[in-house]
Design goal:
- By secondary structure, the protein is of the alpha+beta class.
- Helix content is 47%, strand content 20%.
- The strands form four sheets. Strands 11, 12, 13, 14, 15, 16 and 17 form a seven-stranded mixed β-sheet that branches. Strands 2-1-5-4-3 form a five-stranded antiparallel β-sheet, with helices on both faces.
- Helix 11 packs across helix 14 and helix 25 runs antiparallel to helix 26.
- The longest helix is centred in the middle third of the chain and has 46 residues.
- The protein is extended.
């Protein structure tokens, strides 16, 4: 080997001697390409050997990491070394050395070349060179003449870098990777941008190593492939190793992704090794092992889910409960502000915990869809009461419209429907600072056994940037492209909505324009209820009714804060209560005294809540053998909650709970109060009667929605009055400005609310306005029609005021 290299070097020396004598032209010079390449490979191998086994610094002056041959016009004839891949890999005949050597001081190279030609003396200078990825690298450049013939000078430039780490990595890659079939290797930075790419497996898909340099993961691969690779890259950039299998077209690959750190152990990038294992016989064994591991992991996840739920929700119960109690006391402005901050933060934390747990359960396949009869209007009643205060605080209009054609009782999963709608309405209110939020429920289609309901949540908020719309339902994606501390969240809500809707055989999509608001559409099928299916009627009670006064209540919990909270709440109700600090103490009380209701925390020392209720239910001589019992739990796993019911509990209370939620749960279980659910559903006489003229303000739909809640009934009418007054003002303004398009849009927005109260005469005129202004664009009749609508709306406002209870 040594002798062959010596012969090759002698051949190169002879060619150079001919150049110095002026006996060789440029074309002949290019004939020595092969010799230079062979010599370059030997230099690289020698350099790598010294890097791994010897003192590399001793040889640093004897080598160049990149070599260029160019003429006085800077036209490149030959270059080799690190620039082949790290800098500007595309070779072509028109390249100039200045295209490759991106020197920070652009004039410096020209000055040094002029001095070389003028003095015929080798030149050496230090500078900064920028790679294709804009990485600044300190370098030394040596210039010498290969041909001194005047007007045809050929110049050789050798480049050495002060920090040889990158070139060492590159050489190692070249030597090792090229001998590993079916493997690709990538080096990427914190922005998921490729710095280096090696290996030949990618050629299967028509890709080259040079194609990747400078591109991000999302630019280099299509959406499907980049989504599969992203979790591994993301984990590596978070400082963890990630490995697993992915499929690309008909090929199976195993990927290892690891973090790359600097001298301070800070993650500055990552590496990914991708191996084709499609034909590997070990795949079958690995898949079997993965199945076994998955079964064990699922058990561990279930345990973790229950533990996390309990450990986080239990202290949250005390925070939420005491802040609620504190809010009921006399506070100054500063204290009131602090309480609101505690409430906001605890609600945010609870929401975050809920989202993570639900997403966790979805990933485990632990979320199941119920098919039970329920009232959609009752769910919307609860949602309205939950959000109207927040809407009022932000001075936003909040309106709910329900298509009268939707049956009162439908069959589906009311809990999941409520969860999805609350997520969407909450988002709408969060990202809307002025204007309105509307929730519309429309009957889309129906047949004898099934109906399809279309839900629309529309807002006038910040909207969603066009580039975010394709990924808005992905995990950890937020609708605002800029971080906003006022709008807390981690971007899981919409992911959960999409998964839930799909589990219910529905679909969801969004239309949005940044700065103008968003419209979320979801369509979900429901079965029609038969005569045999009854609603689970749960009555709503008010704390001021004081229905639990004197009731004997046992509350057992091992957490001191929760016991103190229970003592505070039960004292407020004037109940006759007893507190127990563990399961054994609770059972002792139950053997000695008869109670009206028992509340047992599930996780208690000595005896758990389940063990206590088992002992009570199996002993007929126990004075509380048939006493109603509620499980107080932070566990949201549905299978566990069902087990509590099977063991003898009559219901459950989920931590953290609000005072009125606990009150309502106990009242319903005990069936206290003189007012039945049937009486609540009956409409007041003044609402049944009414004139039959065309402006009859029909509140039947609203009364059904309110389910006997007069406060809610009046609030909805107040909202209608407020919205109608604003609409009236906007309509008069648009009319005076002859803004016919504005008139049409105002008419369009008003149609649902007037339809809800069966104001057909007004609706007909609004539809005419909409058609004239937005469709046929015939504006002559609009002014007179507008005046008619204004008169009708003023009359409607009077009648709406009179309709309030």
């Amino acid at each position: 080997m040594k002798k062959r290299l010596e012969n090759q070097i002698q051949e190169i020396a002879q060619i150079i001697n001919h150049i110095e004598d002026g006996d060789i032209d440029i074309d002949s010079l290019m004939g020595m390409d092969e010799l230079l390449d062979l010599l370059s490979s030997k230099i690289k191998s020698t350099k790598l050997g010294h890097s791994l086994y010897g003192d590399a610094k001793r040889h640093e002056a004897e080598r160049h990491e990149a070599i260029f041959i160019f003429d006085a016009s800077f036209k490149v004839y030959k270059y080799t070394g690190i620039f082949d891949h790290l800098f500007y890999p595309e070779k072509n005949e028109k390249l100039k050395v200045t295209d490759l050597l991106k020197i920070e001081d652009s004039e410096l190279l020209s000055e040094q070349v002029e001095r070389l030609i003028e003095t015929r003396t080798n030149q050496e200078f230090e500078t900064i060179i920028h790679s294709a990825q804009e990485i600044p690298l300190a370098a030394t450049i040596c210039l010498e003449l290969l041909s001194e013939k005047a007007g045809e000078e050929l110049i050789l430039a050798g480049v050495n870098f002060a920090n040889t780490t990158l070139s060492d990595i590159k050489d190692y890659q070249q030597i090792v990777i090229e001998n590993l079939p079916g493997i690709d290797v990538y080096l990427f930075d914190k922005e998921y941008r490729y710095v280096l790419a090696g290996g030949r497996e990618k050629e299967r898909f028509g890709l080259t190593n040079s194609y990747f340099t400078g591109k991000t993961l999302f630019e280099a691969f299509d959406e499907k492939v980049s989504k599969r690779l992203f979790p591994f890259y993301h984990k590596a950039l978070n400082g963890e190793m990630a490995d697993g299998e992915i499929r690309i077209e008909d090929q199976v690959y195993y990927i290892w992704a690891t973090p790359v750190g600097n001298v301070y152990d800070e993650v500055v990038g990552g590496t990914a090794i991708v191996q084709n294992v499609t034909k590997d016989k070990e795949i079958e064994l690995r898949l079997k092992k993965a199945r076994n591991d998955a079964q064990e992991a699922e058990k561990a996840k279930s345990i973790f889910l229950a533990s996390m739920s309990h450990e986080i929700r239990t202290p949250l119960n005390a925070i939420v409960g005491f802040s609620e109690q504190l809010n009921n006391t006399q506070l100054n402005k500063k204290q009131d502000k602090f309480v609101r901050l505690i409430n906001d933060s605890s609600e945010h934390l609870l929401s975050l915990v809920n989202e993570i747990l639900v997403l966790f359960k979805l990933g485990m396949g632990k979320v199941f869809i119920d098919e039970i009869p329920f009232s959609l209007t009752r769910i919307l009643n609860v949602i309205y009461n939950s959000f109207i205060i927040r809407a009022n605080e932000k001075r936003l209009q909040f309106f709910i419209y329900v298509d009268p054609e939707i049956p009162e009782t439908i069959v589906g999963d009311p809990f999941r429907i409520r969860q999805v709608i609350i997520n969407l309405v909450s988002n709408a209110l969060k990202y809307t600072d002025e204007g309105r939020v509307d929730l519309r429920c429309l009957l889309q289609k129906g047949d004898p056994e099934e109906i399809c309901v279309r839900f629309e949540v529309e807002d006038t908020g910040v909207g969603i940037a066009a580039d975010l719309l394709p990924s808005i339902f992905d995990e950890f994606t937020q609708s605002s492209s800029q971080p906003d501390k006022k709008r807390k969240g981690v971007g899981l809500g919409l992911t959960i909505c999409k998964k839930m809707v799909e589990l219910m055989d529905g679909n969801i999509r969004v239309d949005s324009e940044e700065g103008k608001g968003s419209l979320f559409h979801l369509t979900i099928p429901f079965k029609k209820a038969t005569g045999k299916e009854a609603l689970d009627n749960e009555t709503h009670f008010f704390l001021k009714e004081n229905l639990l006064k004197g009731k004997k209540i046992l509350f057992a919990d091992d957490d001191e804060y929760n016991l103190l909270l229970a003592e505070t709440v039960l004292t407020n109700w004037e109940a006759d209560f007893k507190l127990a600090r563990n399961g054994e103490e609770a059972l002792g009380n139950l053997l000695a005294t008869s109670y009206d209701i028992i509340l047992l925390d599930i996780h208690m020392p000595k005896l758990t809540g389940v063990e206590v209720i088992q002992e009570v239910r199996k002993n007929k001589s126990n004075p509380n053998y048939k006493t109603k019992a509620l499980a107080v739990t932070a566990n949201v796993v549905k299978s566990d909650v069902k087990r509590y019911m099977d063991e003898g509990f009559d219901g459950y209370v989920l931590k953290p709970f609000k005072e009125h939620d606990l009150y309502n749960k106990i009242c319903n279980v005990l069936e206290v109060g003189s007012t039945s659910s049937e009486e609540h559903e009956e409409m007041p006489v003044k609402e049944k009667a009414g004139s039959k003229d065309q402006l009859d303000f029909d509140t039947h739909n609203l009364w059904v929605t309110a389910n006997g809640d007069k406060v809610f009934f009046n609030k909805m009418i107040d909202t209608f009055l407020k919205n109608t007054t604003v609409m009236l003002e906007n309509l008069e303004l648009a009319l005076s400005n002859e803004d016919w398009k504005g008139v049409g849009e105002i008419a369009h927005k008003g149609i649902p609310s007037f339809t809800y109260f069966n104001l057909g005469h007004v609706v007909e005129k609004l539809k005419n306005l909409e058609d004239l202004a937005l469709r046929s664009e015939e504006f002559d009749d609009i002014p007179s029609l507008c005046k008619d609508v204004v008169l009708l709306m003023n009359e409607v406002i009077k009648r709406a005021e009179n309709a309030k209870l």
